[in-house]
Amino acid sequence: MTTIAVEAAKKVLTKLRNAGYQAYFVGGCVRDMLMNRPLEDIDIATNASPTIVSTIFSDVISIGVSFGIIVVKQDGRLFEVATFRSDGEYKDGRHPDQIIFSSIREDALRRDFTVNGMYYDPFEDKVFDFVEGARDIEKRVIRAIGHPRLRFSEDKLRILRAVRFSSTLGFTIDPATERAIIKEAPTLVKAVSPERIWQELKKMLKRDPYVALSLLIKLKILMFIFPELKDIPYSLLRTTTEFARKLNPTHFPEILFLLPLFQGVTEEAATVAFGRLRVSNKELKFIESWYQVLPHFQNQSSNRVFWAHFLASSTAPLFLELFSALQKDPCRQQHFISRVQELEARLEQFILRIKTSSPVVSAPDLIAKGIAPGRLLGDLLKEAETLSIENECLDKEKILLLLQEKGFWK
Asked: What are the tRNA nucleotidyltransferase/poly(A) polymerase RNA and SrmB- binding domain coordinates in residue numbering (predicted)?
């Protein structure tokens, strides 16, 4: 986050303080500041009630009033301003049934993890740490505040947040916190919306997919999100995740880090599994493509028609990188790369024709032979392309002759 954004956030603090209230930066921004990481969002905590916050600022969004949160617009930027609070019982596993406005210390004790439970005064350059968050940053550990099982039973989303923070920050998870996650993992799917689960998965897979996948498997979380994987041996899942070490997640679609785990699952089951998470149509298309190309890669297919169309597709670079990473030793990986390069060179002209929609035999060529526009014409165009690639032939008349010899027309 830019210096301009920080200055805007400080203006919010100043307005609250000038009105007689406490106000501090809180949560992830304090953690990131102590770690010298770029600030993504700045959240603010105060002892002013939401009603008072709404009167102090002229431009607000009352989006989370029931949880003591008001969104304040300052200098064109949005900041969440939350009132210090204690939470009542969490009956739905996500949200407190009641909140009680309280002190800064009580507000810290109801938060999720120690590294997220600190407050910062930017004017005094002072950190308020009631939960030993700074110590855990130093130790590089994710630790639940208070009783771990209680923290996760209150809000099941914290199960995924623990994994995300561990993978994105490069921290280990405290053993007691790990044990609580394993005990609460079976309740995750019923309490958290599918869209939010997928959102959290994507966030963690975008930073360090290997660590994220390893933790999701180790902590038994993945099998509850995807019961389709429950019969796949743990050892196979763990070894499969090794491929993620070799890929750069910044340009790789998150769903492609999960699909290799589904190699023993049918396409229909995988589509249902990801459909439950409300993935996008584009992501569903990746599933379809994965299952189309998988047997050709597994069986080292020599099908020229498949390879020409595959190598002409926009997703070819992604899948080639993925399948290359899935090769378990450097020799096999190099053999795979060499084989694809050989096929690409051999089929270069056919790949180019597919990319540019320039078939050897076109519709006018067939119409000139007396084929009327319609379904037969379309079928013949596809067959002509197949014959051209299979025979590595760019001679139009030869392809037309082959069509005739196959009895498509007299």
From this structure: 170-230
